[in-house]
Amino acid sequence: MRGINELLLEHAFFKGMPQELSRIIAGCGRQTRFEQGAYLFRQDEPADTFYLLRRGQVGLEWHNHTGTLLFQTEHPGDVINTSWIVPPYLCASDARALDTSIAVALDAKCL
Q1: Is 74 helix (H, G, I), strand (E, B) or coil?
Q2: What pLDDT shows up at residue 1?
Q3: DSSP for 20-68, written as a single string
Q4: β-pairing, 49-55 with 39-41?
Q5: pLDDT (0 to 100) of residue 15
Protein backbone atom coordinates (compact mmCIF):
# COMPACT_ATOMS: atom_id res chain seq x y z
CA MET A 1 0.00 0.00 0.00
CA ARG A 2 1.42 3.38 -1.01
CA GLY A 3 1.62 6.19 1.49
CA ILE A 4 -0.03 9.61 1.17
CA ASN A 5 3.28 11.20 0.14
CA GLU A 6 3.62 8.84 -2.83
CA LEU A 7 0.00 9.41 -3.83
CA LEU A 8 0.52 13.19 -3.76
CA LEU A 9 3.62 13.02 -5.93
CA GLU A 10 1.73 10.89 -8.49
CA HIS A 11 -1.05 13.49 -8.79
CA ALA A 12 -0.84 16.21 -11.48
CA PHE A 13 -1.81 18.91 -8.93
CA PHE A 14 1.45 18.27 -7.06
CA LYS A 15 3.65 17.57 -10.11
CA GLY A 16 7.11 19.03 -9.67
CA MET A 17 6.67 19.74 -5.97
CA PRO A 18 9.82 19.21 -3.92
CA GLN A 19 9.62 15.94 -2.01
CA GLU A 20 10.34 17.70 1.31
CA LEU A 21 7.25 19.87 0.88
CA SER A 22 5.05 16.97 -0.24
CA ARG A 23 6.04 15.07 2.91
CA ILE A 24 4.82 18.00 5.03
CA ILE A 25 1.54 18.21 3.09
CA ALA A 26 1.11 14.42 3.34
CA GLY A 27 0.89 14.85 7.12
CA CYS A 28 -2.40 16.66 6.51
CA GLY A 29 -3.88 13.88 4.37
CA ARG A 30 -5.64 10.57 4.68
CA GLN A 31 -7.15 8.08 2.26
CA THR A 32 -10.93 8.03 2.17
CA ARG A 33 -13.57 5.80 0.60
CA PHE A 34 -17.13 6.82 -0.24
CA GLU A 35 -19.78 4.28 -1.17
CA GLN A 36 -22.19 5.09 -3.99
CA GLY A 37 -24.64 7.79 -2.88
CA ALA A 38 -22.52 9.04 0.05
CA TYR A 39 -21.84 12.76 0.29
CA LEU A 40 -18.28 14.02 0.47
CA PHE A 41 -19.63 17.41 1.54
CA ARG A 42 -22.81 19.52 1.40
CA GLN A 43 -23.42 23.01 0.11
CA ASP A 44 -22.81 25.81 2.65
CA GLU A 45 -20.89 23.55 5.05
CA PRO A 46 -17.44 24.77 6.10
CA ALA A 47 -14.96 23.96 3.32
CA ASP A 48 -12.33 22.39 5.53
CA THR A 49 -11.26 19.48 3.30
CA PHE A 50 -10.38 19.08 -0.34
CA TYR A 51 -10.02 15.85 -2.24
CA LEU A 52 -7.77 14.32 -4.88
CA LEU A 53 -10.04 11.80 -6.56
CA ARG A 54 -8.20 8.54 -7.27
CA ARG A 55 -11.02 6.15 -8.27
CA GLY A 56 -14.69 6.47 -9.06
CA GLN A 57 -16.83 9.42 -10.04
CA VAL A 58 -18.25 12.24 -7.94
CA GLY A 59 -21.20 14.40 -8.99
CA LEU A 60 -21.38 18.07 -8.06
CA GLU A 61 -24.98 19.10 -7.41
CA TRP A 62 -27.08 22.15 -6.68
CA HIS A 63 -30.51 22.01 -5.08
CA ASN A 64 -33.45 24.35 -5.55
CA HIS A 65 -37.24 24.28 -5.25
CA THR A 66 -37.57 22.13 -8.40
CA GLY A 67 -35.06 19.44 -7.39
CA THR A 68 -31.42 18.55 -7.81
CA LEU A 69 -29.21 19.55 -10.71
CA LEU A 70 -26.10 17.49 -11.41
CA PHE A 71 -23.91 20.11 -13.09
CA GLN A 72 -20.50 18.44 -13.20
CA THR A 73 -18.97 15.00 -12.88
CA GLU A 74 -15.49 14.67 -11.40
CA HIS A 75 -13.20 11.83 -12.48
CA PRO A 76 -9.96 10.27 -11.20
CA GLY A 77 -7.22 12.90 -11.20
CA ASP A 78 -9.60 15.78 -10.44
CA VAL A 79 -9.34 18.07 -7.41
CA ILE A 80 -12.63 18.53 -5.57
CA ASN A 81 -13.68 21.37 -3.23
CA THR A 82 -11.31 24.24 -3.82
CA SER A 83 -13.69 26.47 -1.81
CA TRP A 84 -11.30 26.14 1.15
CA ILE A 85 -9.02 28.79 -0.41
CA VAL A 86 -11.68 31.44 -1.13
CA PRO A 87 -13.70 33.39 1.47
CA PRO A 88 -16.23 32.71 2.93
CA TYR A 89 -14.69 29.16 2.97
CA LEU A 90 -18.01 27.38 2.43
CA CYS A 91 -18.74 24.50 0.06
CA ALA A 92 -20.28 25.89 -3.13
CA SER A 93 -22.25 22.72 -3.92
CA ASP A 94 -22.95 19.20 -2.77
CA ALA A 95 -20.57 16.43 -3.84
CA ARG A 96 -21.97 12.90 -4.00
CA ALA A 97 -20.22 9.66 -4.95
CA LEU A 98 -21.79 8.33 -8.15
CA ASP A 99 -20.08 5.00 -7.54
CA THR A 100 -17.63 3.70 -4.97
CA SER A 101 -14.96 6.39 -4.90
CA ILE A 102 -11.52 6.62 -3.31
CA ALA A 103 -9.73 9.90 -2.66
CA VAL A 104 -6.96 11.50 -0.70
CA ALA A 105 -8.59 13.97 1.70
CA LEU A 106 -6.44 16.94 2.70
CA ASP A 107 -7.30 18.92 5.83
CA ALA A 108 -7.37 22.61 4.88
CA LYS A 109 -6.78 23.86 8.44
CA CYS A 110 -3.68 21.68 8.69
CA LEU A 111 -2.37 23.12 5.42
Answers
A1: strand
A2: 61
A3: HHHHHHHTTEEEEEE-TT-EEE-TTSB--EEEEEEES-EEEEEEETTEE
A4: unpaired
A5: 84
C-alpha 40/C-alpha 100 separation (Å) is 12
Distance CA 35, CA 96 (A): 9
Region of 42 on the Ramachandran plot (φ > 0 left; ψ -120 to 50 alpha; else beta): beta
pLDDT of residue 111: 86
For the chain, 111 residues long, the average pLDDT of each consecutive 10-residue run is 86 88 93 98 95 97 88 96 93 97 95 86
DSSP H helix total and E strand total for the chain: 2, 8
Q: Residue 64 has what pLDDT?
A: 83
Do the Cβ atoms of 61 and 91 come closer than 8 Å?
Answer: no
DSSP type of residue 7: H
